[in-house]
Amino acid sequence: AVGVRPRQALYRAIDRRVEHMFQEGLLDEAAWLLESGAAPGSCCGARAIGYAQAIDLLVHTQQQGHQGTRQGGEGGEQGQGLAATADDVRRAVAETQRATRNFAKRQLTWLRGDATFAWLD
How far is Cα 103 from Cα 3, in angstroms, rounded to an integer? Predict the structure, then answer.
C-alpha cells in the first residue's frame, strides 16, 4: 500500500523512536508534569502513550525510594532527584514500544476498513 511500511519495518521504526524519546529526556518531561500537579492518568498529557509509562515509572521509583539522578538508562544521566534502575527504564521503554505498536496496528486496521481510503499496491 502506498505510504504504509511493511509491518516489521514500521515496528522497528517505532521501537527506535521510543528509545530516542527516552534518551532525549522523556522522563524529565514526565517528571515536570508530575511536579506541575498532574496526577497519573489525570489529564491528556499524563495519559498519552510514552508519558503514561514514564509517569508510572517515576511513581514506582518514588514509592521504592531510589535516590540518584532522574534520567537513568541509556541516554546519560540528567537531572537530580529520584532515579529508576536501568531494568526499570528498560521495562518502561519496552512497555511504551508495545503500546505504540498496538496503537499503530489499531490505526492501520481502522484505515483498511474505511472505504474512503484506496490502497494501492
Answer: 17
Rounded CA-CA distance 31/37 in Å is 10
Q: Is the pTM of this model over 0.85?
A: no
Question: With 90 as the cut, is the pLDDT of residue 85 above it?
Answer: no
Any idea which residue has 535516590 for its cell?
67
List CB contacts of 20: < 8 A, sequence separation 6 or more.
none
Q: Angle formed by the axes of helices 7-23 and 86-113, to 10°?
A: 140
Q: What percent of the chain has pLDDT over 90?
A: 48
- Selected from 1.10.600.10, 1.10.287.890, 1.10.760.10, 3.40.30.10, the CATH number assigned to the domain covering 7-112 reads 1.10.287.890
Question: Is residue 69's pLDDT more than 80?
Answer: no
Q: What SS3 state is found at 96?
A: helix
